[in-house]
């Protein structure tokens, strides 16, 4: 989607139009999940970590925005298998910039690019009433009602998070 709005402005506009319950938190730049959770005053697991991945399905490259709890690791092989691919990998920072207009760590759990398929692990929404995420830059976060996120973003559900908690 071509727009003059920043990613942050697109997220806020989308949430406002959808009458979502959310708040914006400004904080020092931070890309590490545990540290940004402390700055937000949320639990690490509330973080909606958004990973930009790729897989090949029937010989064609597909891009995926995979959302999971920030205290979990992604099982990229399981993600690929659920999508019909053989393996998946994270994309380069240049591809992240092209597909999201963000730097790694600042990607919100919304796809604004037509080639970026949005999938989410449902465990995040089973664990928390509110989710939190960096909203297009490392200095602004949004804390959002999880049900409003699901209603507005309408992600495809795929179980791909490893169940063990990450140690940072």
Automatic annotation (TrEMBL):
Gene3D superfamilies: YbaK/aminoacyl-tRNA synthetase-associated domain (3.90.960.10)
One Pfam family from the record: tRNA_edit
InterPro entries: PROXY, YbaK/aa-tRNA-synt-asso_dom_sf, YbaK/aa-tRNA-synth-assoc-dom
Residue ranges constituting the YbaK/aminoacyl-tRNA synthetase-associated domain according to the UniProt record: 27-151
Superkingdom, taxonomy of origin: Bacteria
Protein name, UniProt field: YbaK/prolyl-tRNA synthetase associated domain-containing protein
Organism: Serratia surfactantfaciens
Lineage: Bacteria, Pseudomonadati, Pseudomonadota, Gammaproteobacteria, Enterobacterales
């Amino acid at each position: 989607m071509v727009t003059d709005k920043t990613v942050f402005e697109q997220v806020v506009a989308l949430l406002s139009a959808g009458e979502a319950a959310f708040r914006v938190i400004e904080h020092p730049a931070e890309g590490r999940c545990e540290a940004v959770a402390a700055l937000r005053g949320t639990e690490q697991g509330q973080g909606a970590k958004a990973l930009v991945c790729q897989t090949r399905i029937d010989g064609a490259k597909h891009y995926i925005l995979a959302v999971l709890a920030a205290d979990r690791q992604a099982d990229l092989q399981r993600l690929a298998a659920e999508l019909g691919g053989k393996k998946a990998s994270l994309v380069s920072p240049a591809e992240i910039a092209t597909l999201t207009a963000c730097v790694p760590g600042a990607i919100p759990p919304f796809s604004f690019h037509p080639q970026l398929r949005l999938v989410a692990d449902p465990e995040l929404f089973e664990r928390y009433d509110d989710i939190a995420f960096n909203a297009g830059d490392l200095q602004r976060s949004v804390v959002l009602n999880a049900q409003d996120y699901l209603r507005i973003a309408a992600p495809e559900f795929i179980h791909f998070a490893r169940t063990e908690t990450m140690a940072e």
